[in-house]
Structures are given as structure tokens and as C-alpha cells.
Amino acid sequence: MTNMSPESSASEKLDASDKTVLIYGAIAALSGLVLHQLMTLRAWPWNHPFALAFLLQWIALAPLAGALLAGMRSGRRWLAALAAYGLVLPALTAYGLTSASGSLPQELGGWPQGNDLALALLLTGVAGFILLPLIQALDAGKPQWNYPAVFRAAWRMAVHLTLAACLAMAVCLLLTAAGAMFTMIGIQAVRAIVDDAHFRLAVWPMILAACLVGVRRRPSLTETLQRSWLTLNAWLLPLVTVVGLAFTLALAARMALGLEAVQLSAGALIAFSLAWIKLINAAWQDSPEAAPFGPRLRGLLRAAMVCLLPLAAVALYGAVVRVEQYGWTVLRVWGLAGGAMLVLYGAGYAWAALRPKRYYAVLGATNLIAAFATLGLLLAINTPLANPLRLTAESQLRRIVDGRLDPERFSFHAMGKDYGHWGRDALQQLADGAANARDPQIALAAAQALKGSYYSWDDVKRANGQPPAADPAPAPVPAFATTPAGRAIPDAWWNALRDDSPGRAKLCSPPDTQNTAATQPCRLIFADLTGDGVDEIILYIPPRDAEPGTGEQFIAYVWEAPQSWHQLGWLRAESFEQAMDDATGVQDIGQALEQGLVHTQPRPDRDLMIGDNLLRLR
Predict the structure, then answer these.
(1) Looking at residue 462, what is its pLDDT?
(2) The pLDDT of residue 115 is above 90
(3) CB–CB of 32/209 below 8 Å?
(4) Residue ranges of the alpha helices (H) in 13-86?
(5) How many Å apart are CA 433 and CA 416, to the nearest integer?
(6) For residues 143 and 136, what is the distance between their CA atoms, to the nearest angstrom?
(7) 3-class DSSP string for 91-139
(8) At CA 280, angle to CA 277 and CA 284, rounded to 5?
């Protein structure tokens, strides 16, 4: 007779914590479906950006945190988790998002623009993951604040989440592949179900919850990975220690001899130091005896940790110097934050190296203090207090006003587009004359950027009536190809384009080409995007082979009485699929334009269809 293992017998029945995980999966699925339906109906929280951002963060964070904490028995710890994941973190993240993009209603009903939501979810997710083991195992009343239990909880949750996410991704990929396979034989229903938003919102959270239950029911897997994977990583520690020690001594020798370091990269030092810290923790894990080395090698590795402090100090100094020389940028904010955290780690680890009898207790205390410091830093960066966009916009504004930054190197267009309301406020100050004492053309450049125009610094000189000597006289209205064919091109539109966006005008009418439709690189599309019965003009600029990375552009212009044209917005590709009954089979933009396959797509604000490409006005 075959004896069943404890794990196989335990798998026959779900315990209370496993059922709790599935309940949290159902909560996430139901919450996602409800929010999706509300947004589809344009009901609350539509046009309420703070509420929408809060709910998005709550749905992504609270059920997952509850599932990972399932089985925790302390009522006070559950209350702390509820406050952190159900209120504090979503509220702070929503505040950070709305403070950057504004809390007023937007075209998308308050939905965060661009990568803002993904970045906010990432930062909040990292902060939430750091907080999980602290809530579950931290106990200030126990020796070392119960750090060994905190380490084991952090590792267990990391293993559970990583394996469950990988398994869930594999299941979702299999479902997607199944839909594609059935589509190949003409059965569209399977793919339509798998790709349906309601199906994904309902099923994917439950798949992740089921995978998490499966991983949790193999407790020996976590300990096996800890004792094998982390120990294998720990064998890299001697090599990294030798490199770090040699580099520190060589750097000190060059500085003592008065030699320059040639080129120090703060980013490289930060990455190396983080790898060193990671390997130190992989070696010592949750016990001072866990390191897989003999006493002598263990002592040498411990003593070499002193080198972490000077490396961290050099990295922080390099980041500070770059900020003083060139001002804040988003990457420099992160670099300085990373350097500051490394100094904290380096000071704690150096102190541990100097106290061999209590080194593990000092290591544990340093890691706990660094965890709380990282939480504070992430929350500060996720709010206006230390938001990289705010710091960058204000820093670059000061530099261009006081003359430290060349106007030709100032990213006017990016400042208005990528730095939230702080960037637009900076442009408005420049347009109002904040830098007129230095160069009045800066105000013209900022005013053009506020209109959404993209240009070179020479464009500002043209707008100021000072065309460069090498430039030829402005060309007449080019013989653009039009869709529909044969449409007359208004002179007022062409004059407005030359005045507001000389760079685009020059691009669409190169001086060395004949003025015929066949030789013009751009095309005009006439379509009623606003639904008022009057066609707008969409300027189509195709990809430029000579400039890798430049994609096609669609810029919409609207007529305003009595005689003015201005930019309405950009048309962005939203989807490459539509109902099969409407498909034309033409995906190439140029080919679709040549065939005249252009029409608007009805919705509250009209879309533009070119072949099978859906373009939405932004």
C-alpha cells in the first residue's frame, strides 16, 4: 500500500486561509467588473479623477495584500493592514496622481494619462510589498524586533507572489493561444470570449488566486528555495567582495595621489552596491550561522562590508554634483534617492562590520530602518513633496531664467507635455516674460509650446520675424495629396501652419522638391471629427526613414471664425481590431489613404478609421 505524503493529503481539502485567498480573488474580480461598468456608463467615478485613482489603486492593492496575508491571526495586525492597504496607500497615490495631472474633469473622465497610472501602481506596489512582512511579523517587543521572522515572511511572500504570477501568466497565455488556434479554423467565438474585457476582469483575478492557493499549499517549496537558491547566490559574495574592496582601495589611492577618477558613474556604483547588499543578505538570511562559509572567510567578508560606506558616499556625491551642474531631472531624483538609501545601508553595514559579536543584530536593525526609510521615500516621491516632475520643472525653470541653461537645450515641448501641471506652469511663467530680461524669444518659444507646437529654436526666430539667412523664402501652398481626393486647401490653414509650426511646414514642403502631390511627403485628410458638420483638417506626416524611431503623426486642425485655424489635438492609434463586419483588410496607413478608406467612427467624440486602424483624438 502506498503512503500518501502530508502535502498530498492536505491538498484534498481547502483550509480557511485558502478559502480566504479565493474570496479576495472574487472581491478583486467583482470590483473590477463594477468599476468597468461604471466607466462604460460614464457614471461616478467618471469625471472624478481622485475617486477613480483611489478605486484603481484599491482594486489592484487591497485584495492582493489580503490574499498574501491570509492566515494571519492577529486582529490588530489585520486592522493595520486594512488601514494601510484599504485607505492610506490608495489615498496617497490618488493624491499624487491628481496633484500632477489635475483634479478637474478630463476628456477620459479622469483616467490617468500616459504611463502615470503604471508608474503609480509600481511605486505603490513596491511600498505595499515592503510593508507586508512588517505588518505580519515585526514585533518591537522581541529581540532584534523579530527580524528573522520578518526575513522569512518577506521571502515567503516573494516566492508565493512570483510563482503564482508566473503560473497565472502561463494560464492566460494558454487561453490566448487557444483563441488564436480556433480562429485559424474559422471559429471566432473562443477568441472573442478570451479577449472580452468582462471575461478578463472576471477570470484573471480568480486564476491568480487559484495559483496562489496552489503555491501556498506547498510550504516546503518556500524553505527549499530559500536554502538552495539564496545559498547559491551567496557563493557570488566572495567575488563581489573582492571587486568592491579592490575598487575602493584603487579609488582611495588615486585620490591620495591627486589623480582624477576619470569618469565615475553614480548609477553604476549604486547598481554594484545594491548587488553587494543583496548578496550579503542572501548569505546571512535569517540566522548568523546561515552563511555557507568557514569562520575565517565569514569574518573577512564581514569586515569588507566597511567598503560599502565609501562607495555609497561617492555615489551620493556624484549625484549631488550632477544636480548642481545641470539641475534636477527625473533620473537624477531617483539617483539621489538611491544614493541616500545606500549611505544609510553603508553606515549600518559598516557599523555591523566593526561589531563582530553583534553584527547580525546590527544587520537586521539596519534592514528594518532602511525598509521604513524606503517607505517614506516612495511615499514622498509619489506625492508633490518630492515628485520628480515637480522638482525637474521648477529646477529647469530656474536655470533658464538665471542663464545657466541655454534656451536651445531647454525642452519646451516636453515641459508642457510630460511634466504635469508643473511643466505647464513653468511654460506659462516663461510665456508671461519671466526670462525676458535674458532673451524675449524664450517667451515666444514657451507660448508656442503651450499651443502644442513642436519646433526647433530656429522656429522661434522665424516666428519673431528673423528667419535664418540660410533659409529660403516661405513656399506657396504645396500641392498636397488629399483624402477625399481633389479637396481645396485653404490658404489660411497653410499660413497658420507656417506661423505656428514652421518646422512642420518645412518638413511637409521641402525646398528641393517639385510642388506636385507625388513629391510632397505629407497628406491632408478632411473629416468631421467634432460632429458639427464642418470638416477638420488632419495633417498626416509619414514615418521618416532617415530618422529612426520617428513614427507617423496625425495632427488635427479646426477652423474658428472669422479667419483662423488652430491645432485641435493629435490622433493616436487606439486599437488594431474592430468588428469583422467592418474590416477592410488594409492595415497599412499609406495604402488605406491611397484607396480612400477613411471615415469617422461614431462615439461621443468621433474617432477616425483609416483602413482597419482606429485613431482617437487627444
Answers:
(1) 52
(2) no
(3) no
(4) 16-40, 49-68, 75-83
(5) 16
(6) 16
(7) HHHHHHHHHHHCCCCCCCCCCCCCCHHHHHHHHHHHHHHHHHHHHHHCC
(8) 145
**420-454: string of b/e by CB count within 10 Å (b at 16+)?**
bebbbbbbeebbeebbeeeeebbbbbbbbbbebbb
Quickly state the pLDDT bin for 10 (edges 50, 70, 90): very low
Which SS3 state, helix, strand or coil, does residue 539 take?
strand
pLDDT 10s digits, 409-463: 888 888 988 898 899 999 999 999 999 988 888 998 898 888 776 555 655 455 5
Q: How many whole angstroms separate alpha carbon 463 and alpha carbon 195?
A: 49
Cα end-to-end distance, the chain, whole Å: 70
Written as one letter, the residue type at 396 is Q
Say how far apart CA 569 and CA 539 lie, in whole Å.
Answer: 11
For residues 400 and 410, the answer to whether their CB atoms sit within 8 Å is yes
pLDDT, one tens digit per residue, over 363-399 is 999 999 999 999 999 999 988 999 999 999 999 999 9
Q: At 549, is the pLDDT very low, low, confident or very high (cuts 50, 70, 90)?
A: very low
**Residues in the chain, total:** 618
Average pLDDT over residues 473-487: 79
The C-alpha atoms of residue 139 and residue 131 are separated, in whole angstroms, by 13
Longest pairwise C-alpha distance within the chain: 96
**β partners of residue 571:** 617
CB 323 within 8 A of CB 286: no
In the chain, the amino acid numbered 391 is L
Long-range contacts of 247-251 (CB under 8 A, 24+ apart): 247/311, 248/307, 248/310, 248/311, 251/310, 251/314
- Cα–Cα dist 552/6, whole Å: 61
Percent of the chain with pLDDT over 70: 84
- Of 3, 349, 353, 18, give the one whose Cα is nearest residue 164: 18
DSSP letter assigned to residue 436: T
Q: What is the average pLDDT value for the chain, to the nearest integer? A: 85
Q: Hey, what amino acid is at 9?
A: S
Phi-psi domain of 503 (left: phi exceeds 0; alpha: psi -120 through 50; beta: other): alpha
Mean per-residue pLDDT for 140-160? Answer: 91
Q: In the structure, what pLDDT confidence band is assigned to residue 296 with cuts at 50, 70 and 90?
A: very high
Q: What is the pLDDT of residue 598?
A: 81
Q: What is the 3-state secondary structure (H, E, C) of 191-238?
A: HHHHHCHHHHHHHHHHHHHHHHHHHHCCHHHHHHHHHHHHHHHHCCHH
Question: What are the backbone angles phi and psi of residue 551, rounded to the nearest 5°?
Answer: -95, 175
- φ and ψ at residue 482, rounded to 5 degrees: -125, 155
Amino acid letter for position 261: A
Cell 531624483, located at residue: 333
Place of cell 476582469: 201
